Amino acid sequence: MKIKFLPLIAVFFAATSIMTSCLDNDVDQITYTSETSITGFSLGTLHIDRVGKDKNGLDSPYVDTLDCSNYPFTIDQINRTITNKDSLPVGTHIDKVITSITYDAGMLGYTPKGSDHDTIWTSTDSIDFTDPVEFKVYAYSGVEGKPYKVTINVHKQEPDTISWKKFDNSFSAGSLSEQKAVYANGKVYVFGKKNDETTCIEYTKVINVSVPGEEKPKDNPTSWTSVPNVPTNIDTYSATAWAGNIYFLAGTNSKQLYKLDVTTDNNEISLVGLNTDTFEKLIGGNDVKNELYAVKENKSCKFNGTTWEETGANPFSNLQGNYPIFTNTIQASYNSKITTTIALCNSSKAANDTVLVFSYMSNEANKGEWVSRAQNLPLPNLENVTMIYYDGKLYAFGGGYGEIKPFSQFYCSTDNGLCWRPVTECMAFPAEFSELYTAHNKNYSCAVTPKLENETYRGNFIWIVWEDGSICRGRINRLGFTPKW
């Protein structure tokens, strides 16, 4: 039976103490503690909503049990708050919660949801925590403790699911084809061609964007801004981020290397090297080894910021047509001085072809050579393929050939491009992306914001830019959760 008037019981305890002390001077006087602290709080087994497969292989929701006894709760004795900084999984039921609580001598009371008075807590009580619940310790001395506000946090989003948001931005130059998007210094730059085949560069700020009237910056992109004084005949697919800036090729038959300085809003463009230096392709950069890779005079070579060095034959000569090349560099787990750079690009517009993958290993002697990489589980030849490094893995996606629909799914590699497996759960594109791809004449580009550790912006965004400048932003939910520890 629940007792409604805990304060009266506490007064009774105090009165009993006084009466006992007045009976006889030979009787030992009992002094009751006035401590009213909660010293421990934990949960029991809760119910959680899950989705499984029925006998027909279809998704079927069901309710499971979840042992929550190991979820730590932080007790703030100064502010009298109790909460779990590590939220419970999405779908956890907290309307009927069994708790385990330790506290100083006396009794523990709480105010049930919908009630205006306290009731005695017992370890078998099923409590509704959909709203914060207040607990009080009543000491035997008659002291009524200050209330503790207990809050149980539950994730509102599935941690491993990617969420998308669309922004209806527009390029100032109009529609852009042959796009390549590159992230650098808080901005996403897009290299592309206008309808009249004029090449241009536009950018949007995506980090620490201040919003009038709001205290914290937003993650939303700003309007597109054109970069002035760009060279003519830019190879838009060559744009690559390296050493804190963006490098690209420009020219008709003899392409030269340029640097776009992104460290300021001036976006100054300068020629790199001599006028006699010409290139066929710009492959990508390796910031770990401070190397920029290119094809020069039909030989693969590397640049350290001052001089070029030949590294071997040109394995990219078999590429049919001009396509963007995507690269990613990792360090060897056994030796940080050894890096492997993976390059991925389309081979041709044939459905039965596979995407080409090349690798370059830079060892302790800082020597290496590009080689064509065999794939144990090949990546299908996705039209206008894109490769990104995200959440510690390589992902590839793009348009489709044959039975593969555009943006139907991600393909993931956890072994540096040897095997590519379709992602079937959580990491997915909205169904409308296939329609957007077609509506925008198959023109799009993609960049990734790296992980950034600060309170106002945590990065980890995927930015997909369509032909007209509209943007779709995605992020795995758990990568956007506020750090708790």
Can you characterise this structure?
- This protein has 485 residues and is mainly beta.
- The protein is built from 2 helices and 34 strands.
- The strands form 9 sheets. It has a 6-stranded mixed beta sheet with strand order 4-5-10-9-7-8. It has a 4-stranded antiparallel beta sheet with strand order 11-34-33-32, with no helix packed on it. The chain has a 4-stranded antiparallel beta sheet with strand order 12-13-14-15, with no helix packed on it.
- Strand 16 (234-242) and strand 17 form a beta hairpin.
- The chain starts with 5 loop residues before the first helix and ends in a 9-residue tail after the last strand.
- The model is unreliable at 14-23 (pLDDT under 50).
Radius of gyration: 31 Å
- Overall pLDDT level: 86
- Adjacency order of strands in the biggest sheet: 4-5-10-9-7-8
| Oligomer kind | single chain
User: Biggest sheet, open or closed, and with what strands and sense?
Assistant: 6 strands, mixed
The count of β-strands is: 34
Report the helical percentage: under 10%
Low-pLDDT stretches are 14-23
Structural class: mainly beta
Portion of residues in beta strands equals: 35-45%
Shape: elongated
Span between termini: 41 Å
Number of helices: 2
